[in-house]
Amino acid sequence: MIDKAEGDTHALVLQAVVSESENQDIAVIEMEKQGSESAVLQIVGDEDIYGEETILEPREEAPTQSAREVVVNVWSWPAVRHIYSPAYAVWVSPWSWRLRPVWWRPWRPVRWHTFYGYHAPYRRHYVVAHHHRVVRARRIYSPVRTTSVVVRTRHQPAVVKYRAAHPVVRTTTVERGNGRVKTTRTTTRRRR
User: Fold this and answer.
1) Where are the alpha helices (DSSP H) in the chain?
2) Would residue 185 count as lying in a domain?
3) Residue at 142 is within a domain
4) Would you give the DSSP letter of residue 61?
5) What are phi and psi of 79, to 5 degrees?
6) I need a labelling partner for 67 at 20 to 30 A (CA). Which of 49, 89, 105, 106 fits?
7) Does 111 reside within a domain?
8) How many domains does the chain have?
9) Is 38:169 a contact under the CB 8 Å cutoff?
10) Distance in angstroms (rounded) separating the CA atoms of residues 131 and 185
11) Strand 38-45 and strand 23-35: pairing?
């Protein structure tokens, strides 16, 4: 994990080592402190892996209304408090492509149904978001995004097929009033 920070904003990059010379970003945990006891968090999946920018955010344990959008304050999470504490230091892995722990062994591939059974219970704790709430983290992360030619080449046919089946229409509205220009971007997914 790589932590890119600027003030009260953190972009925690989850990255995989693909080869001796290439890394690939998997996702970014974007966090922003918004007050003395308030912070928001989103997880953004890399488009080379997921086919589009997938944004997830925590949701309440027992949502009162499914249609209502609720921003969850993650300040009470111990990991979030630790990151914003003065004692926080970024951890850097001592391991690399050629230097691995003695006990390390590659994982054998696991079938989807087996994997899904392990991780299905966690789905109720997040919701898919349709826009960025942590805008400053995005600006911190964008210039340092790391991609792999191997991953892009391997996943390109699936990504192209996904994008063709799920086209996205983006429209930009510009409002002019009182000498100010306000730009709003709306993203709509068309289903076939």
Assistant:
1) 47-50, 78-83, 112-119, 135-141, 149-165
2) no
3) yes
4) S
5) -65, -40
6) 49
7) yes
8) 1
9) no
10) 9
11) antiparallel
